[in-house]
Amino acid sequence: QVQLVESGGGVVQAGGSLRLSCAASGRSFENNVMAWFRQAPGKEREFVARVGTRGGITSYADFVKGRFTISRDNTEFTVYLQMNSLKPEDTAVYYCAARKEAGAEYEYWGQGTHVTVSS
After folding, report:
1. How far is Cα 52 from Cα 35, in angstroms, rounded to an integer?
2. CA angle 39-40-42, nearest 5°?
3. Which pLDDT score is estimated for 119?
4. Residue 74's CB: how many other CB atoms inside 10 A?
5. What is the pLDDT of residues 57-84, one digit of tens each?
6. If you write DSSP's letter for every residue of 49-77 in order, what string do you get?
7. What value, to the nearest 5°, has the Cα angle with vertex 75 and ends 72 and 79?
8. Do 66 and 86 meet the contact criterion of CB atoms below 8 Å apart?
9. Distance of alpha carbon 34 from the chain centroid
10. How far is Cα 75 from Cα 72, in angstroms, rounded to an integer?
């Protein structure tokens, strides 16, 4: 079982930056692929970024490439999402998720943190 708690959301003006954190507790954080998803009002949840178990392999949705950076600290059991050059369309609830390295589905989810980007 893995428990995930996101933090760092807030209100920021367009062009600004935020850093989201996801603190994990439970077993074997370092064995889990970690990801960020988001869900905007009235829209379906969508993938944002993913980081491999050792942090060396990352993957991003096209709409955040060059602006967002995902990273993890296995000694602190935390995954981060650095968000720069924010746009109003980045407004959403951001969720942290975890899955086993060989798993297909994300098994564990946080409660989400709200990000609002004003124009």
Report:
1. 9
2. 110
3. 93
4. 16
5. 999 999 999 999 999 999 999 999 999 9
6. EEE-TTS--EEE-GGGTTTEEEEEETTTT
7. 20
8. no
9. 8
10. 9
